[in-house]
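Student: Hello, beginner here. Can you help me understand the protein record under this note? Any guidance would be welcome.
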Amino acid sequence: MPTYSFDRRGLMVAAAMAAAGFTLPAAAQDDTTTIGVVVKIGGIPWFNAMEAGITEKAEELGVEAFMVGPTSADPALQVRAVEDLIAQGVDVIGVVPNDADVLEPVLGRAMEQGIHVITHESPGQKNVDWDFELASAQGFGEAYGARLAEEMGGTGQYAVFVGGLSVPLHNAWADAAIAYIEENHPDMQLIGDRYGVAEDVDASRRTALDLMRANEDLGGFLAFGSQGPIGAARAVQERRRGGEIVVLGPFSPGQGRQLVHDGILTGGFMWNPKQAGEVFVTLGNMIANGEEIEAGMEIEGLGTIEPDVENRTIIVDQLVEINEDTVDDLAALGL
């Protein structure tokens, strides 16, 4: 089984203690709120920016908060990470799920232990206090569908990548984008259905190369997942088809800016992952302190909210466009 690394030395020590048969102490021995956030995969720019937001907001609020980054986008590793946080006795667990269904039971166990649970990029997630989104699935997907059609002139073949076929939000974006294109641009044709490779830059590159070899008329890649646009763009660059094939998707500006300036990576829309990290801490601290989340209240990082209480979801629209004019400034923010 693959292993995963933690972004915080204390958790690795605690895991080692557990393996050796020691009883794990509570994560905090005083009244300080303790928040552990499990992301899709560690060590990539998007989640490095999220970690910076978590760390800075924790220091500002005087809470203990840290990020756990598995070494691959394997849902089983996220389950293990959540189980370790339950054993640690944290107050709040945050998750950016790779597979909502796989996580549902372990998140239920966390809540049974009195631990609050917050998710991001997983609207409709079961067994959570709240899920928050910095962009609506419909608006985000349609923005990409419209942009891809514009760049392709409303005609031609395109392919869609997602982080995984069981990642709810990526597939909701893809659904919205594809539906928009089908309704408004009938001369565009989707190749296959969608490919679950967009959290792995090498898998995205290989898949893009395969699709270009098999479909000489392929005109665009729409990749939902921060490594998908990078991998597809590298494949386009390798085949020397920059300017011929459109590559769109959310990506780290710092990672992709040279590809943007080289005319290989067309651009996209994103929200600020650092801001998402800050919201994990802000919202987690509020919930841990017993604050009720209500319509019309102002939450830093989210603005004025209108929560969907039935589905435990808070959605706001804070899209940022990535293009040749904005990518350098965004990268300078550490994104």
Remarks:
- The chain is about 45% helix and 15% strand.
- The first strand starts at residue 34 and ends at 38.
- Residues 1-29 have pLDDT under 50 and may be disordered.
